[in-house]
Write a structure and sequence with these properties.
This protein has 2 domains: 166 residues, Periplasmic binding protein-like II (D-Maltodextrin-Binding Protein, domain 2); 114 residues, D-Maltodextrin-Binding Protein, domain 2. Helices cover 38% and strands 24% of the residues. The protein has 11 helices and 12 strands. It has a 6-stranded mixed β-sheet with strand order 2-1-3-11-4-12. The longest helix is centred in the first third of the chain and has 18 residues. About 4% of the residues have low confidence.
């Protein structure tokens, strides 16, 4: 059962007073690998070092599985990761969620099934016999939640499509739809207009949405999380979430967050956050 940060701090310090961290490693799988994002990761770790008052080193993981392994073996103490990885991978069983990623003023998003704007497909019921592109089985918005949404609409994904393709990234899925290689794709979407619930697919947009039309939206998905190892929580104390919340006030950190993680900032997690995340993901994981 998930416990409060204060309880973790007390218990860890009592048992491990001589092993509090002097150096912290922050790990992530960046949105893209480029010289710019490599520099951004260094900038972000510099901002974290100043905010936490101890050295923070970067760890650029090539894949979510590699990040999980590094966290599990203590090579990463603070990680930016997807809610599906935290909920489903044993490496994060003792992880403490500190903050949620905020994009567009929201700490949640939705999965979307989308087609080209000129497609003859206007509703999920017209997908029978279509060709679909997924990101991959571990992707919340690129596989798990769209399939759950189809089932909620009374459709069986395994019986619906004539061809299913896994392309590994959201960009590749969007390219496949745009170029007509497939009829429909799965990706993440944000509401257009004011903050609030999305009433219909027509009010949502996908990244680089020019020429696309959303035909089905999923339930809300929790945003990516910043999670910490118990040793780090004990070292930093209960103020760690507040430090992350204030990062967007630093112009260097703010720019690094935008380019490295596609985020505008962080929102503090409440106690019991990971339990709530797992509960929200369980239906999608079960049908995925």
């Amino acid at each position: 059962m998930e416990v409060e940060l204060a309880a973790v701090i007390r218990a860890f310090k009592k048992r491990n007073s001589a092993t509090l961290l002097r150096t912290v490693t922050f790990g992530c799988v960046p949105v893209e690998d480029s010289p710019e994002t490599r520099a951004d990761l260094l900038d972000l770790c510099g901002a974290l070092s100043e905010a936490f008052g101890l050295e923070v080193r970067p760890h650029r993981a090539p894949s979510p599985a590699a990040l999980a392994s590094a966290f599990r073996h203590g090579r990463v103490h603070l990680a930016w990761t997807s809610p599906t990885l935290v909920a489903g991978h044993p490496a994060f069983v003792d992880a403490l969620p500190l903050a949620r990623t905020v994009r567009g003023g929201r700490s949640w998003y939705r999965a979307a099934l989308f087609v080209r704007a000129d497609s003859a497909i206007h509703a999920p019921s017209q997908l029978r016999g279509a060709q679909v592109a997924w990101v991959g089985p571990a992707s919340a918005s690129g596989y798990l939640f769209p399939r759950q949404a189809l089932r909620a609409a009374g459709l069986v994904p395994e019986e619906l499509f004539c061809l299913e393709t896994e392309l590994g990234s959201h960009g590749a899925v969007r390219h496949a739809v745009r170029s007509g290689i497939v009829d429909v794709g799965a990706t993440f979407a944000h509401p257009s207009g004011a903050v609030g619930e999305v009433p219909s697919a027509g009010d949502a947009v996908v990244p680089s949405d020019e020429g696309f039309r959303v035909i089905l939206l999923s339930d809300a998905i929790p945003s990516d999380l910043i999670v910490a190892a118990p040793a780090l929580v004990a070292t930093l104390g209960a103020e760690a979430p507040q430090v992350l919340e204030r990062l967007d006030r630093d112009p260097v950190a703010s720019r690094a967050l935008a380019r490295l993680l596609g985020a505008e900032g962080f929102e503090r997690c409440a106690d019991g956050e990971l339990t709530a995340v797992k509960r929200s993901l369980d239906p999608a994981l079960a049908v995925g």
